[in-house]
Prior knowledge:
The chain has 17 helices and 20 strands. By secondary structure, the chain is α/β, with parallel strands linked by helices. A 7-stranded mixed beta sheet has the order 5-4-3-2-1-14-15, with helices on one face. Strands 6-7-8-9-12-13 form a 6-stranded mixed beta sheet, with helices on one face. Strands 18-17-16-19-20 form a 5-stranded parallel beta sheet, with helices on both faces. A hairpin with a 2-residue loop joins strand 6 and strand 7. The longest helix is centred in the C-terminal third of the chain and has 22 residues, at 373-394.
Amino acid sequence: MRIALAQINPVIGDFPGNTTKICEYIDRAKGLGADLVVFPELSLMGYPPRDLLDKRSFVRDSKQYWDTVRDASRGIGVIFGAVSENTVAPGKPYHNSAVFYADGKLLACAHKRLLPFYDVFDEERYFEPGERSVWVDFRGERIGITVCEDAWNVKDFLPRPIYRCDPVCELREAGARILINISASPFHSGKAAWVGQLLKTHAVQTKMQIIYVNQVGGNDELIFHGHSMAWDETGSLAACGADFREDLVMYDTQTRTGDLHSSNLDRVSEVLEALVLGLRDYAAKCGFRKAVLGLSGGVDSALTACIACLALGSENVLGVGMPGPYNAPESLDDARELASRLGIEFKAVPIADMFHASLKTLAGPFEGYAPDVTEENLQARLRGLILMSFSNKFNRLLLSTGNKSEVSVGYCTLYGDMNGGLAVLGDIPKTLVYELAYKINEKDGWIPENTLVRAPSAELRPNQTDQDSLPPYDVLDEILSAYVEKRMPVDMIVAQGYDAKLVQWVAGRVDCNEYKRWQAPPILRVTTKAFGTGRRFPIAHRFREGRLLCR
Length: 551
């Protein structure tokens, strides 16, 4: 049997567009002689639809397009992801389903059995789990059908399995020789290798051929890698889809051979590609063609500008330099030089006059009070005002340039540098920012050397550097990784050799700045734990790691 893995980028709620794309890929698969073409999870409506599922018209309207796919299935088998209604009460109203049409007939509608409820997932909120695993005899082969998480419950692979059944084992016991898994599995750094090892484990343990078809593209904060795979029953990778782009991959179950389109990206290149795709799709799916961002002469804004050019084209990016009273002259020079190398439009809008006018306006109410962080933040907020004005006037998506290290500990200003429609680097630690910047310069040389070697600074007071307020970034990022991503308690982090007071300070800053992150723009997710829907902490609470009292 020849199976086509159709790795597509659906738009959530665009039923006509998604259906047209599905039919186009069906035709392409027929042209390649495929017996079966497989699409990702919820490919008809896009993943994740979230509370759109609470709109009855959303599911009702999507059902109208099933017949179009059914008609396109004449002469071929088609498996695609859709929402079906649960006709059994009590229970949730819908199922997350894999629909199998062949020659214009419905062969099966397999409902997802294991519904994830952790991190960015909340499928138990909407779906009723399937009661049994489903297999189909097709073209002389028994095919087991699973949906994403159904294949995740691998004995001896996960540290703590959380489900009481294993659909994969059940399908093997039913005599399935080929396992189909349709997925919408979000990207994080290292995810492809992890999924590959999981699928290989399945193949070796069950002696089944494993077909995994994953969504590609960006939907809000989530990025989907693609990287669909076929593994033979010996645990050899036989086919693989491209990274971060749509693809159609062929796999032959008889010869155990197929197309290998992956670029085998290194860790830093993989993250860079993910950010470019995430920004490109966020802009396009929200109706933006152009972007604007502040260029400070620092590495964060420089990297964001480079990613914006890769995603949208340099002709669609505007950089704005906003020198203030404490900026070094080279900051504006470096920003202008970056813009020139990138070929983007650049405008300089000084804020000194606005800043002094604001101080004069506030002089009466502030009389008798010494200057402090209030005046520093005023500069950042004036820059935010200017950037939002450019965004409004010229219909450009404003890109926030802050990194994860800053956002974690609150080293950022609400309604200032946190302004924006998308935080491109909000899940990128400062140390990785530099790695990404050097990776870009290896190929293109866009970022001025001075930007890379100068000490990082917000330049909100004379001779300020980040390390006046923060520990060295290499140390800070290691502690943040342990506390935020690995969820390690303070005492365990200290036991690894870090200073106890420093660890307590970092943990306290993370905890006490939750209110800022609730008001941040969406953050593109590239680590195992980003600030967003996958991390839900209350703002008002009194638990402090290490009993640190944050003031």
